[in-house]
Write a structure and sequence with these properties.
Strand order of the largest sheet: 1-2-4-3
Shape: globular
Strand content: under 5%
Oligomer: single chain
Order of helices and strands: HHHHHHEHEEEHHHHHHHHH
Number of helices: 16
Helix content: over 70%
Distance between the termini: 66 Å
Length: about 425
C-alpha cells in the first residue's frame, strides 16, 4: 500500500480510537453521575450504623463535583490531541524551534520540553479549580495560594533538573544505538526508575513535606511488634504533615532495600484508633509480603518493553508521521506522536489493570485479617470512606474501568466473612 494510503488509513484508525475512547470516558462519567445521584438519599445497609445520611449525601455531592470536572478534563484533553495532530500545532511547535536555529539533540529537547510545558499550562486551571473550589467547598483543602505556587515552582525546577537530562539521554540513545535503540532505552529507563525509588524518600519527598519520627511510644511499640510478626524491616516510621495541604488521610511505603520507610499522614493518625492504624499498616504490609509491588513493576517493565519495541517499528515509517499531521520525522517527533496517540488505543484495556489492582487489594485485606483483627480493618476503612467522602455506591461499569480498589460494600462484606 502506498505511503499516502497508509497514512490515510492510520489517520482514520486513530480518529476512530480517539472518538471511541473519549466517548467511552464521557459515557462512563455520566453513568457514574446518574448512579451516585440515584443512591444519594439511601445509605447502604452495611454502613447504616456508622455513616449518617448527611455524610452519605456529602460524599455523593463531592463525587459528583469531581466527576463534572473530570468531564471537562476529558473534553479538553481530546481537543488538545486533535489540535496537536490534525490541527498542525505539533508541527508548528517543531518549526518554531527549528526557526530559532536549533537542530539535532537541542531541537529534540526543546521541542519535547515545550510540549510538556504546554500540557502543564493547560492542566493548571483544572488543578487550581480542583484545589481551591472543589476541595475547598467540601472542607478538604488546606493549601494556601502561596503553598500552591511554591509547590508549582519546586515541581518545575525538579522537572528541569531531572527531566531535561533524562530526555537528553533517551534521545541520544535513540539516535546512537542503531536498530536496537529501544532495548537500550528500556534498560536505561528501568535503571532510572530504580534509582528514583531509592532517591525519592530521602531526597525528593522532603522538599515538599516534613517527615518526623513517630513520637507515640505505645503506637510505635505496637507497630514494631507487627513488623516483627510480618518479617518486615524498615529504616524508620515517619509522620508526614499532610494536613498542611489536605484533610484527606493516608499511609504508604516508599523506597526499597535499606531505604524503605513507613509513612503515616498526620491526618490518618488523628482519625483512627491504634488498633485501626495497625490494621491499615498490616494491609500495606500485605502488599509487600505478597510481592505486589514487584509484580506490578515487572508487568510495567514488560509493557514498556513492548511499547518501545512497537515505537522501534514505527519510527522509520513515513505514514506514521503523516497520519498524525506531521511531516518532520525524527526521534523527538516519533516520541511525541507515539505518546499522544497511545492513550486512545489503550483506554479500552483499562479494566485489565483495574482488575489486577483490585485482586491485589483483596489479597492484602486477607493478609491484614490474618495479622490483625478483620473488624479493626473494617472500622478503619469505614472511617476513611466517611472522612474522605468516598462514594459507597459507585456505578459497577464505571468502577470496572476506573477503580483500583474494590467497591466499599464488596470489600467490607468480604472482610466480614473472615473469622477475627
Amino acid at each position: 500500500m502506498p505511503d499516502t494510503a497508509m497514512a490515510n488509513a492510520f489517520a482514520a484508525l486513530f480518529l476512530a480510537a480517539l472518538g471511541l475512547s473519549t466517548g467511552l470516558r464521557l459515557w462512563l462519567v455520566r453513568r457514574q453521575l446518574r448512579h451516585v445521584a440515584a443512591h444519594r438519599e439511601a445509605v447502604p445497609a452495611a454502613f447504616s450504623a456508622s455513616i449518617t445520611p448527611a455524610a452519605h449525601r456529602r460524599a455523593a455531592d463531592y463525587t459528583a463535583a469531581k466527576l463534572r470536572l473530570a468531564m471537562v478534563e476529558v473534553m479538553v484533553g481530546g481537543l488538545l490531541v486533535l489540535a496537536l495532530t490534525f490541527g498542525g500545532l505539533l508541527q508548528a511547535m517543531h518549526d518554531a524551534w527549528a526557526g530559532l536555529g536549533l537542530g539535532g539533540l537541542p531541537l529534540g529537547i526543546a521541542f519535547l520540553a515545550g510540549l510538556a510545558v504546554l500540557h502543564a499550562l493547560l492542566d493548571l486551571p483544572i488543578s487550581l479549580y480542583a484545589t481551591f473550589v472543589t476541595e475547598a467547598r467540601f472542607g478538604f483543602n488546606k493549601t494556601t495560594p502561596g503553598l500552591f505556587a511554591l509547590d508549582l515552582a519546586k515541581g518545575a525546577l525538579l522537572a528541569a533538573l531531572i527531566g531535561l537530562p533524562l530526555l537528553a539521554a533517551v534521545l541520544w540513545l535513540m539516535q546512537r544505538m542503531g536498530t536496537l535503540w529501544w532495548l537500550h532505552v528500556w534498560l536505561f529507563w528501568l535503571a532510572f526508575n530504580l534509582l528514583m525509588l531509592l532517591a525519592y524518600p530521602t531526597l525528593i519527598a522532603p522538599l515538599f513535606n516534613k517527615f518526623s519520627p513517630l513520637a507515640d511510644t505505645a503506637l510505635r511499640d505496637r507497630i514494631e511488634a507487627l513488623l516483627a510478626r510480618c518479617g518486615f524491616r524498615a529504616s524508620g516510621l515517619f509522620v508526614m504533615d499532610g494536613s498542611k495541604r489536605s484533610s484527606h488521610g493516608n499511609a504508604y511505603f516508599t523506597g526499597f532495600g535499606r531505604s524503605r520507610r513507613i509513612v503515616f499522614f498526620d491526618t490518618l493518625l488523628e482519625a483512627l484508633a491504634p488498633a485501626e492504624i495497625e490494621a491499615v499498616l498490616a494491609h500495606e504490609l500485605g502488599h509487600y509480603r505478597l510481592r505486589h509491588v514487584w509484580k506490578r513493576i515487572g508487568l510495567l517493565a514488560l509493557a514498556s518493553l513492548a511499547l518501545l519495541w512497537l515505537l522501534g517499528r514505527l519510527i522509520d515509517a513515513p505514514w506514521f508521521y503523516a497520519g498524525l499531521g506531521m511531516h518532520s520525522q525524527g526521534t523527538a517527533s516519533a516520541l511525541a506522536l507515539f505518546f499522544i496517540a497511545l492513550p486512545a488505543f489503550l483506554f479500552p484495556l483499562s479494566p485489565l489493570a483495574s482488575a489486577l489492582s483490585r485482586r491485589h487489594e483483596y489479597e492484602a485485606d486477607a493478609y491484614a485479617a490474618e495479622q490483625t483483627r478483620a473488624a479493626d480493618l473494617c472500622a478503619a476503612l469505614v472511617k476513611l470512606y466517611r472522612d474522605n467522602a468516598a462514594t459507597l455506591t459507585p456505578d459497577p461499569l464505571y468502577s470496572v474501568f476506573h477503580d483500583s480498589h474494590p467497591p466499599a460494600a464488596a470489600r467490607i462484606a468480604r472482610l466480614q466473612g473472615v473469622t477475627p
